[in-house]
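INSTRUCTION: Work out how this chain folds

Fields: amino acid sequence; protein backbone structure tokens

Chain under study, with its fold:
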Amino acid sequence: MDRSLDAAAFLQIWQHFDVDDNGYIDGKQLDGFFRHMLDTFGMKTEETTKEMTEDGIRGLRDRFMSAFDTAADRRLQIQELAIVMLPEEENFLLLFRRETPLDNSVEFMRIWRSYDSDSSGYISATELKVSLQGFLQDLFLQHRKSITPEKLEVYTDAMMKMFDKNRDGRLDLNDLARILALKENFLLKFKMEACSQEDRKRDFEKIFAHYDISETGELEGPEVDGFVKDMMELVKPSISGTDLDQFRKALMGHCDINGDGKIQKNELALCLGLKLS
């Protein structure tokens, strides 16, 4: 198996075949899944290449299910496949991402600021140990999902073990981004330089509304953070908490014309060279 397959890629493929999002695939969905995995992720061998016929794929599916269909229900759940196809860390990531998706970067940054209590750019050892269970509990509650104390304990231990790679007792912004499932950078939908002035105004309205979660006509706190994070990641995919804070300070210095600690809609438009009518 090609171990370069990670949780994000696996989940994207899974969602293509699990079209009704019920957490399992069966029948022809399974055949298509196995064919795709063999063909795309380097899982072909001389033996499996011979099995790429319809009958061969069905045979491979049946052998796989006899070994890993733990529920014996003639279908495979995402957990059953993930255990086999992903390393332990990515398997945990997959299940965690599936249960706790985030809608936007504002939500992500609100979580980050809440637990990086000293604004050091890290969730430190003390912050991590004291608040990790609370962080996970909050995340599940935010998505109206229940979690047993036993499962919460499992997730807490797993996060401590798997994501503090250098054992320094802290997580940085990128660590948290790997743990949480965040939808594609919203700004990737727009190509401001290729648009007319009217198109740019229309896109600006969509962009501002996306980050103005509070619908106040101004960006503040995690709303500014989320906008900054997405802007930075357009040119630098991997950013640190320190990087973000420095760029945030520069943006506020440039755009916060009235000095109230917020970015008004007209202030941001002016910074981007737009005149709103």
The first helix runs from residue 7 to 17.
